[in-house]
Amino acid sequence: MSVNNFEITADQVRLLREDEKNSEFIAVSSKTFLKDAWDRFKKNKLALFGLIFLSVLIIGAILVPMLSPFDYESQDILNRNALPSLAHPFGTDKLGRDIFVRVMYGARISLAVGFSTAAINLVIGIIYGGISGYVGGKVDMVMMRIIDVIYAVPTLLYIVLILMIFGNSIYSMMLAICLTSWIGMARQVRTQVMSLKEMEFALAARVIGASDWRILIKHLIINALGPIIVTLTMMVPSAIFTEAFLSFVGIGIDPTIPSWGKLANDCRALIFSYPIQIIWPVSAICLTTLSLNFVGDGIGEALQLKRR
What we know:
Blueprint (H helix, E strand, L loop, with lengths): L1 E2 L2 E2 L10 H4 L11 H10 L2 H23 L31 H37 L1 H16 L2 H12 L3 H27 L3 H8 L4 H12 L1 H24 L11 H8 L8 H32 L1
Antiparallel strand pairs: 1-2
């Protein structure tokens, strides 16, 4: 046998054994983008702690009011201002109501307001900011001036007017918070879209004939998910804190509904005699805010690989 002027004899020809065929093969597991992002997210201990805390809180908010023998409204006058015990892990308030059940029920209200308003702001912000940043020119100028006009009026004034007109319900609270809080999301999306639309992958998509909506949603918004999700996770604690603040000062949702702000307001008069009662709702607000911030930072870092 002759190969490239070299003579190879039959004795030099040997078939590889089965165990030798894959001796140089290096197996690499295939990962999707989401799987790779999850692996990166798990390496962030603070983000993982925040996710676990939020999961436990959500499960507790659903199950505790359902399974507890005490109702968040039931009163026990003979057991007022009791200290924490096995029967009442957080103690009881001035009317003998179980604080643990009320805090878990308040988590339903506060988390519902926070996540619902954040979801609404996400949709509005992506559409408004995406169109403004992608189209640019006079359209961008007009849309940004509209935002400036809305932003010039104090947010608290909008909220108070909405609550006065539509009443102190959860839906009116969500409407009041959403009225101006989408502005931050719109500006973030606009900034990201304006910087990404001039990059090579966006220009290549335009050259091959992709529609504007496909370029905006499929390419620009997807690549800006990291900063968008970080902004989104900041909106949730902001909405929770706004609802808690308004309920604390007495202009929030229906006083009969035990949100975290309302619970803190109820304990304000007893802060010197029974200070432990105000610790529970305040701790719930603080830990939830910290957890959401940790999760947002972790998701942002995990999704940043897409941008690279």
